[in-house]
Amino acid sequence: MIRSRGWKMTAVATLVVVLVLFLTPYLWIFLTSFKTRLDALADVPVWTFSPTFEHYPKIFIDKGYLSLVWNSLNVAIFSTLLSLSIGVPAAYVFARYDFAGKEDLFFFFLTTRMAPPISIVVPMFLLFSLIGLTDMPIAVILAHTTFNLSLVVWMMRGFFADIPREIDEAAMLDGHTRGGTFLKILLPLASPGLGATAVLCFILSWNEFLYAFILVAFESRTLTVGIPGLVTPHGTLWGQVAAVAVVATLPILLFTFLVQKHLVRGLTFGAIKG
Fold it and tell me: For the chain: N or C, fewer Cβ within 10 A?
């Protein structure tokens, strides 16, 4: 009994330490977004101060960063949907069908994720320039789809493999076609994996910098590309940087909250088999 209580107290203490380590930077950013420039640059951290709300309207309205948030949302949402639309059926094929070269093809999908982005972005820029897609959000959407697609195939293949084949056979005996079985039976069963995969794809796309920096110019910039513009010759505008950072975390937190019931199960089962 004493040993059990000791382990419980140790676990609680460890959890508190981990939470403090992870949440302190976010708390600091949140507080800095309401500090004046003088308080933000103070040598000794200032914890009690008179808050100012000037940074949010200055950065998002006066400097037009609200359009960058909209650009980032469009890119992240559409690249996630496109990755799932292509990758989920491909993962189903890898999980349910046997064909020559299947494992080699699957390994090829994974290697596309392992390649350094800098080695791909220049050929991709030249390709998009030839077909007239540079400086357009569709270029970034397609680029993000290329590196998210392998993640979708890898995770969802494991999740489909975790579903017994007997379910497919029973559904087809009831009159469902192969496509109907996939859409009406297997996809609902795989919803935890879909939720987890969608969250990871959205986060990777939302936080990506290099492709967005190379492929689009001023009008179509994403939020990650706009943040370095707050580093001026006269110094870094830390209050505005913190305000952008706070707003940049909100879509990820909201999206994760909406699919949280699927997230843990999807990450636990879907990505470890297959």
Answer: N
